[in-house]
Amino acid sequence: MKMNKLMTLAAVFSMTVSLTACGPGNDASNSTNYGTTNTSKESAANGGGTDTGSASAQITPEDGAALTVWESKEERAFTEQIAKQFTQKYNVPVKIEEVAPSDQVTKLSQDGPSGLAADVAVIPHDNLGKAVAASLILPNDVFTEETKKNNTEAAITGATFDGELFGYPRSAETYALYYNKSLLKEAPKSFDDVLAFSKTFTDKSKNKYGIMWEVGNLYFNYMFIASTGGYLFGDNGTNKDDIGLNSAQAIESLKAFVKMKEALPIKSGDINPDIKRSLFNSGDVAMDINGPWELAGYKEALGDNLGVAPLPAVEGKTATSFSGIKIYCVNAYTQYPNAAKLYAEFASGKDAQLLLNKLVGSIPTNKEVLEDAQVKNDPYISAFAEQAKNSQPMPSIPEMGNVWSPANAALPEIWDKNADPKAAMDKAVQQIKDLNNGAAAQ
């Protein structure tokens, strides 16, 4: 959802057909629809039916298939291992290009029609609606039943748009409170407690701060919107015309946001993931609000001094974070839809999710993996799982793309320039509405 970032190289496919022939629904080799016809032919040859208990047996990689996949820098080590295993099993070479998940749908829209995009992308679920609306990805049609049976309800919700399953869930994400046990004996229960500690620890002249997080990023600040009843879109995130960022409940939560400036007296632009990571690892930041993608590095840096806990309470209320599902999607313009679907299923299965958890501390979506001792007995992952219980999935409607810029401009106005929270959020909401009603999800 990490959000909070949040992808620029792609492999070039040889083009021997026109752009029209390479578009969705036009396979130059057999003029069949990528999303259904190839797989239905294979299914018929194998007995057909809708039971996907052995769905991978229903399709085989195309002759000469070779895949390119996009992956984040932080999780590339996982994909290198999974790609190697996939090649060993299916004899399909896989090339990895580093592209941040939050950028992949935009890049897919730019490079997909010309055949320059990856065959398999990994995106945060809130980008799904935009991808579907632009016909950029294929449905998860072959592995529908397997995917639904094996993953949590929240994961399936995140991978589904307008009633149809598109994604292959591989991990859940929310953020929690990292803290240095050598500096705090236990995690604070409320942001008032965080502020009280910070008054004894923060020293701007020494670049030391009680807590640090990306104060200009709505993803990490949703707790200061939703904990007292605020929201983004109404009707469970589906109503673009009901925006609650400036509601009375949201402004109540933002009171805590404003108070925290005393604990972190620096400009929002002076905080980025690299700076924050360095200061936390060195002990100059005592607490960091961040996602599971930082877990492996923080464990290496702090060892037994690393603690993870659910977010502190906001204005006396349990903190509500944003959550997201990271999903694989198959490019609608791929020359090798069978191979791409097989890869997406393979890289999101039980063994793959166990490996991803081991390497980067991800929160699994596979129900068996969640019950595995590797995950269940992990004090760090269990803390993220507890916070996830008090999280809200990011909306996946296309208009979600119109939220980030206005909201991420309003927060620095409040933090850096002492703008009135209601006035700043009123402005942001109007900008979002203008985008929704004009050039939605641009």
TrEMBL record:
Keyword terms, alphabetized: Cell membrane, Lipoprotein, Membrane, Signal, Sugar transport, Transport
Low complexity composition-biased segments: 29-40
Cellular localization per UniProt: Cell membrane
Pfam families membership: SBP_bac_8
Recorded topology in the membrane: Lipid-anchor
UniProt entry tagged with the keyword Secreted: no
Region named Disordered: 26-59
PROSITE patterns, A to Z: PROKAR_LIPOPROTEIN
Residues spanning the signal sequence: 1-23
InterPro entries assigned: Maltose/Cyclodextrin-bd (IPR006060), SBP (IPR006059)
Family membership: Belongs to the bacterial solute-binding protein 1 family.
Protein's recorded name: Maltodextrin-binding protein
